[in-house]
Specification:
Shape: globular
Structural class: mainly alpha
Number of helices: 8
Number of strands: 0
Largest sheet: none
Length: about 210
């Protein structure tokens, strides 16, 4: 093994460790900021805005950028985030209630609540996907519109993200300690993945070209 090759592998390992360390640092900051209910979703939105910088390592001072994005997100989205928080609790309570109920009405209620939950989670993941490129003058209304368009255009990747997030919730229910490691990081990474997933156009072969 050449010295150059060994140095390159060492640098690659150190680069990956740096990315992991930065992501865990942002996760800890997210946890601290989200302790106040009203700050939960602004902290998640700030996390999403700086996630590409943490993965690419193109910009230093991630903590300063995180708090700058949190300062940007809080006055714009705290009220919407508060509504989402209490709405999520109500939806989770409804799912648990009807899942443990009896009778035919249980099936009817779950047939409505489960797809509704999937749609809401899909819209939230779509919001995370469009957040890194959202303009500075974004409002709740404009961000919702952009996320809705993203969901309509990219429904298949979003559906995969919803399944991945449901799988994460199932893992957390079995290992609650995972919540501290990935409560903000996992949804952020899923949203980032959805945003980067592109449907590749089919290339025309020579037989497809009309003369």
């Amino acid at each position: 093994m050449s010295e150059t090759g060994g140095t390159g592998r060492t640098n690659a390992v150190l680069s990956r460790l740096t990315v992991i360390g930065d992501l865990l640092m942002l996760q800890i900051v997210f946890l601290v900021l989200s302790l106040g209910v009203v700050t939960l979703y602004p902290a998640a939105f700030a996390f999403q805005r700086v996630l590409p910088d943490a993965l690419s390592q193109d910009h230093p001072q991630l903590l300063r950028r995180f708090f700058k994005q949190f300062k940007w997100a809080f006055p714009r989205f705290w009220l919407t985030g508060l509504a989402l928080y209490f709405g999520s609790i109500a939806l989770a309570f409804g799912l648990l209630f009807w899942a443990n109920a009896n009778g035919v009405i249980r099936i009817a209620a779950l047939a409505v609540l489960i797809p509704l939950t999937g749609m809401i989670i899909g819209l939230y993941l779509s919001t995370l996907a469009v957040l890194p490129t959202a303009p500075e003058n974004s409002t709740s209304k404009s961000l919702f519109r952009e996320a809705n368009l993203f969901l309509l255009r990219r429904s298949l990747p979003v559906a995969g993200g919803v399944i991945a997030l449901f799988t994460w919730f199932a893992l957390v229910s079995q290992l609650p300690t995972l919540f501290a490691v990935g409560s903000g990081l996992v949804p952020a990474l899923i949203g980032y993945w959805i945003a980067r997933t592109r449907t590749q156009p089919q290339k025309k072969g020579s037989s497809d070209v009309s003369i």
